[in-house]
């Protein structure tokens, strides 16, 4: 098992700072966020993020990103893309860029439902069955293009999208070649929507389980009520140690399933400074992985 950080969660660091900090702390890899984003007065996770590579002109940045990553002794755990499955032109660009970088796998997003997802992408208002059927046709095409480029396109289990659960993602990809399409299982997202017991979900996905994201979340009483007078709860991101999801039980299920791939952290909690947060997360993940009986490389420290 190897550990990396998704740069959506490192907004205050430039790319140069991100690779240096993560390498110094002993991380194995990095997962670059690639998307066009809004400007912001202060760096944030979704706008003004300094560690984000713009999609516009991305191809001109690939050599620099590759040099920064390898120069720091880090590997690519994958690419955190935001090209939606029905945007074939940008999906193909992301697949080609992933091949050029040697990053092996890239996220392709699925349509949002209800409240906006993916950092603000609005829902279309199209009924779920129509969105799903369209996405299935898109992924049939994507699987062919991923095979052409020699990479794998990943569907993330993400709340308020058509693939919030392992079951829905399997239904989307079933029958497509798992060498070229797969699923990102995400501990934190599933606490918001789509939760299924860990081991059965891994077993259900089988060869489609291609990557793992770890973050944590909690549900809190907002202090508000709806029209009926009932309490309204909202979800908030939480540190790995204090969220509602058990990282230990999650890792034990991964061990039982035989998963030994990448685990990428995207910690959107803000209680601790960024450098302190990432360093502590690595220490915690290594200790939990060892408790779960997972193989953990020694790292650079």
Automatic annotation (TrEMBL):
Pfam families: AP_endonuc_2
GO MF entries: isomerase activity
InterPro entries attached to this UniProt entry: IolE/XylAMocC-like, Xyl_isomerase-like_sf, Xyl_isomerase-like_TIM-brl
Keywords: Carbohydrate metabolism, Isomerase
Cited SUPFAM superfamilies: Xylose isomerase-like (SSF51658)
Annotated transmembrane regions: none
UniProt domain Xylose isomerase-like TIM barrel: residue ranges: 22-287
Protein's name in the database: Xylose isomerase domain-containing protein
Provenance organism: Arthrobacter nitrophenolicus
């Amino acid at each position: 098992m190897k550990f990396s950080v998704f740069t959506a969660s490192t907004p205050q660091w430039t790319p140069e700072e991100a690779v240096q900090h993560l390498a110094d702390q002993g991380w194995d890899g990095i997962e670059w966020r690639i998307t066009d984003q809004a400007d912001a007065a202060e760096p944030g996770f979704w706008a003004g993020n300094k560690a984000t590579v713009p999609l516009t002109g991305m191809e001109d940045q690939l050599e620099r990103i590759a040099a920064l990553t390898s120069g720091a002794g880090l590997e690519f755990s994958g690419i955190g893309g935001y090209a939606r499955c029905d945007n074939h032109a940008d999906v193909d660009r992301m697949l080609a860029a992933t091949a050029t970088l040697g990053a092996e796998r890239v996220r392709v997003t699925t349509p949002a439902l209800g409240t906006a997802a993916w950092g603000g992408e609005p829902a279309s208002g199209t009924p779920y069955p129509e969105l799903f059927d369209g996405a299935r046709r898109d992924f049939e095409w994507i699987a062919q293009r991923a095979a052409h480029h020699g990479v794998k396109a990943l569907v993330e289990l993400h709340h308020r999208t058509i693939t919030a659960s392992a079951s829905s993602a399997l239904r989307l990809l079933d029958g497509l070649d798992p060498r070229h399409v797969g699923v990102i299982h995400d501990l934190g997202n599933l606490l918001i929507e789509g939760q299924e017991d860990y081991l059965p979900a891994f077993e259900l996905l089988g060869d489609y389980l291609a990557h793992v994201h770890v973050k944590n979340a909690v549900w809190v009483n907002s202090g508000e009520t709806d029209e009926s007078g009932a309490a309204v709860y909202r979800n908030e991101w939480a540190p790995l140690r204090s969220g509602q999801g058990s990282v230990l039980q999650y890792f034990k299920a991964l061990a039982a399933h035989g998963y030994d791939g990448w685990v990428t952290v995207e910690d959107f909690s803000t209680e601790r400074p960024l450098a302190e947060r990432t360093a502590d997360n690595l220490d915690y993940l290594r200790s939990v992985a060892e408790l779960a009986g997972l193989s953990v490389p020694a790292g650079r420290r």
